[in-house]
Amino acid sequence: MNIFLRELRANLKSLLIWSVIISLLIVIAAAKFSGFAGDPSMLAMLDSMPPAMLDALNMRAFNLTTLSGFYGLMFIYFGLLGAIAAAMWGSDIISKEERDKTVEFALVLPVSRSRVVTAKALAALVNCIAFVLITWAVSLLAVRPYNPDQAFFNFLALEMRAMFAIELIFLAVGLLLGCAMKQYKRASATAVAIILVTYFLSIISGMQESMDFLKYFTPFKYFDAGELFRSGALNSTYLLLSAAIIVGSVAGAYWTYNRRDLYI
Amino acid sequence: MNANIYRHEFRARLRSVLIWSLALTLLTLFFFAMFPVFADQAALMNEMLAKFPRELLVAFGMENMDLATVLGFYSLIFFFIQLCLAIQASNYGFGLVSIEESELTADFLLSKPVSRTQVLTSKLLAALTSLLLTNVVVWVSTFVAISLFREGRAYDLATLLLLLASLLIFQLFFLSVGLVISLLVKRVRSVTPYALGLAFGAYVLAAFSGVFGDVGLELITPFKHLDATYIVQHGAYDAPLVLLNVAVSLVALAASYWLYIRRDIPAVS
Predict the structure, then answer these.
(1) Domain limits at B212?
(2) Is residue B268 domain-resident?
(3) Residue of A53, A54, A78 to mutate, interface with B, max B Cβ within 10 Å
(4) What stretches of chain B show up as alpha helix (H) in DSSP?
(5) Does A28 touch chain B (CB under 8 A)?
(6) Is the pLDDT of residue A56 over 50?
(7) Closest residue in A to B192 (Cα–Cα)
(8) Is a pLDDT exceeding 80 seen at residue A58?
(9) Is B30 in contact with A204 (Cβ distance < 8 A)?
(10) Does a structural domain hold residue B36?
(11) What is the ipTM of this complex?
(12) Is residue B241 part of a domain?
């Protein structure tokens, strides 16, 4: 409990910074949306386009003149920011003890290593939950001038659940890296590499049909905003896949941290 | 400049430079391998696109992007190369002097008979060399990728050289801005989150203004200062923005020297 509270306090500043960044993004975006909102000529243009082309540009789902379509377009940025934040929190919360030379102190306390990991993971999890809730709340405030309907609230709720799932995946992977990497510097560097690679894969898999199979390797594609909008629910195959990644990573984190040699 | 510090710094970064270079080479080759297929389809798509109103294309940032041409396709990849280089450069910038403090080696370094100016100059030069190395690799892999996959399509060499040359200005911006921020704050605990925040923040802002048309965001983000689509279309830099970019870099560098010479560095207790 003490570790948990301490970690929460230590991460508060980071959470605040990330929240400010995402709030700025939402506020700027909402201001820009006013140029599109309900513009009928825009809608007519979209209607006149051939369906094949809309598919090619993944624009069928995103009718930019409606709030939902607009938020569909925003989702990739939410996912990206959430993923970076979660991966950094996950890897940093474990590896910072070694960086700050406090790991010996933490581990001579009368708690098992598993307890340490649990407390830290829970603190990072609380951060992730808070981050999603803040995104949600700011979104609701920012779109108030446009009188959103119930369908939008449902879609927003769905998007936020998807964002939370992405966060969880990257949090678990970050934790695993923090626990498994022998050198603390490698943990965050590897996390960056994973984020970049998966982000590029998600773009490539969208660009070309033959690369479509790549979508299984990138969490950003597990929760594709266009797909979410069409189906109105999270895809259960991908949810299972995400759960497998999360459980596997967390189990791996406990397993390696209990056995590891500390870098001092 | 002190040769020992330079050598040490350069060696410490060599591994990271190799990994980034490898990643960038793979990225370029892999993306460009899709070009032949894309170019055939894109020729059809461009015909259709030409019929649509300009506002719509602007809204999607596609108005100047001709994916059927070598340079049009390359400017798409270029955006990602820029992102990678931005992360790398801001990583080096943020870590340049702050790592000494977080690893408690600052008082060892600063008790050596070299001035702080010399320390900073040697470190900066070493970081610049590392960035230059990566830059050279990008040049080489770009030319290799283009000659492998262009399938006889012509492109304008001068414009390509302009694009590639802009990378150095771009790297310098993130290096110096990262450095000055790391000196402005009291303590950099971990370099990566800062670096990611700076690079991805600039990237998201740029990608964003591409989607929603322009509202002056190009003034803040270096991705817009050296926008590939602009360079390809005009065959020249957007001079005022590039000057702004260079000016910010130089001011940041000067401020870094000023701050570092006066910095209070906590000793190991």
Answers:
(1) 3-262
(2) no
(3) A53
(4) 3-33, 35-49, 54-59, 70-102, 106-110, 116-149, 157-184, 191-211, 222-225, 228-234, 239-262
(5) yes
(6) no
(7) A188
(8) no
(9) yes
(10) yes
(11) 0.78
(12) yes
